[in-house]
Amino acid sequence: MVSGRGTRASVSAAANLNAVRETMDVLLEISRILNTGLDMETLSICLRLCEQGYNPEALSSGIKELRKVPEALKALKM
């Protein structure tokens, strides 16, 4: 007789994966509405850092500063 435990675990894992995808889709849509310019990968990285205890405001400031770098490099080359 085959146990249903493996099947239930697979269904549960699939449900969790779907929930994570849906959550990320909603967060990406919010990000787009707010015009953050973050793609799915960057948003995912930021979310993981926040989950690990990083300060969201500090992350935001860091991203803003990093976005200034290309402009500053262009100004130096002129």
UniProtKB/TrEMBL annotation:
UniProt keywords, alphabetically: Cytoplasm, Cytoskeleton
Query: Where is it mostly found?
Result: cytoplasm
Q: Which processes are annotated in GO (biological process)?
A: gamma-tubulin complex localization; microtubule nucleation by interphase microtubule organizing center; mitotic spindle assembly
Looking up InterPro entries in the UniProt record yields:
MZT1
Annotated Gene Ontology cellular component terms: centrosome; gamma-tubulin ring complex; interphase microtubule organizing center; spindle
Q: Where found, per UniProt?
A: Cytoplasm, Cytoskeleton, Microtubule organizing center
Could you tell me which Pfam families the record lists for this protein?
Answer: MOZART1
Q: Which domain of life is it from?
A: Eukaryota
State whether keyword Cytoplasm applies.
Answer: yes
PANTHER family, alphabetized: MITOTIC-SPINDLE ORGANIZING PROTEIN 1
For this chain, the family text in UniProt reads: Belongs to the MOZART1 family.
Protein name as it appears in the record:
Mitotic-spindle organizing protein 1
The lineage is:
Eukaryota, Metazoa, Chordata, Craniata, Vertebrata
